[in-house]
């Protein structure tokens, strides 16, 4: 097939390499405008921002198959608050959380402080929107938590989550609208300093398969397939990759 890959970073180069291995003709472009229905059989958007901007929706208008979710369903990646609420509604395990939106409250900082103090546990502060893997603060003290809340509130909507601990792993699933299939479990190096210190980064390298004592198919059944089933039942099938960032706690 003639495949157009949106984006030009390392992820997109890896996708292009895999497609060429399978005999496809591949082009990389930064804009969907470089594609046309006459010479493109499949579009694979790489960056999340392209999906949030509606790349899959535009492909549908042009009649070009696209491996990626619509802009509405891309909120699963674009909004941590949306993702957390959906997981909660579907009974998917996760930490306790709350979303804070400056457009709906003029006392957002105080509201967040109150929720945190009522929780009585350390929290993680996350910007609600796309932040290229860098929108998370893991404060180590009450003072750092308070400062992180103030900074997040100045940037817009944010989420507070109960801080949980354990090894992390990345579960990436290929979804066709009704089914999901797991890639090998991966782990990446998130914090910038030696000994897992400093601010979070966008990844800084990863390896797979990770030494995780779980069967990917079991994790799919718990964390991904309920989401796929939900969107299928709603008549808006999810096509593309679903990423679940898991922290393997004792329970």
Polypeptide structure, described:
The structure is a single chain. The protein is α+β, with helices and mostly antiparallel strands and 251 residues long. Helices cover 33% and strands 25% of the residues. It contains eight helices and 14 strands. The strands form five sheets. A four-stranded antiparallel β-sheet has the order 4-7-5-6, sandwiched between helices. Strands 2-1-3 form a three-stranded parallel β-sheet, with helices on both faces. Strands 9-8-14 form a three-stranded antiparallel β-sheet, covered by helices on one side. Strand 5 and strand 6 form a beta hairpin. Helix 6 runs antiparallel to helix 7. The protein is globular and about 60 Å long. The N and C termini lie far apart (46 Å).
């Amino acid at each position: 097939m003639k495949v157009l890959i949106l984006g030009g970073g390392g992820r997109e180069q890896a996708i292009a390499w895999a497609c060429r291995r399978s005999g496809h003709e591949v082009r990389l472009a930064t804009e969907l405008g470089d594609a046309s229905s006459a010479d493109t059989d499949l579009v694979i958007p790489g960056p999340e921002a392209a999906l949030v901007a509606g790349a899959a929706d535009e492909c549908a208008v042009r009649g070009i198959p696209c491996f990626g979710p619509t802009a509405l369903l891309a909120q699963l990646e674009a909004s941590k608050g949306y993702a957390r609420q959906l997981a909660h509604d579907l009974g998917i395990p996760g930490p306790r959380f709350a979303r804070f939106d400056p457009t709906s409250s003029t006392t957002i900082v105080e509201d967040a402080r109150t929720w945190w103090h009522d929780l009585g546990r350390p929290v993680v502060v996350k910007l609600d929107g796309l932040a290229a893997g860098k929108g998370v603060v893991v404060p180590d003290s009450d003072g750092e938590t308070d400062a992180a809340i103030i900074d997040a509130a100045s940037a817009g909507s944010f989420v507070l989550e109960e801080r949980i601990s354990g090894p992390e792993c990345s579960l990436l699933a290929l979804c066709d609208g009704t089914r999901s299939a797991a890639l090998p479990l991966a782990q990446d190096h998130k914090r910038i300093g030696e000994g897992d210190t400093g601010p979070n980064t966008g990844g800084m390298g990863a390896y797979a398969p990770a030494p995780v004592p779980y069967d990917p198919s079991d994790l799919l059944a718990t964390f991904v397939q309920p989401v796929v089933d939900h969107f299928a039942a709603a008549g808006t099938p999810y096509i593309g990759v679903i990423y679940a960032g898991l922290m393997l706690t004792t329970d």
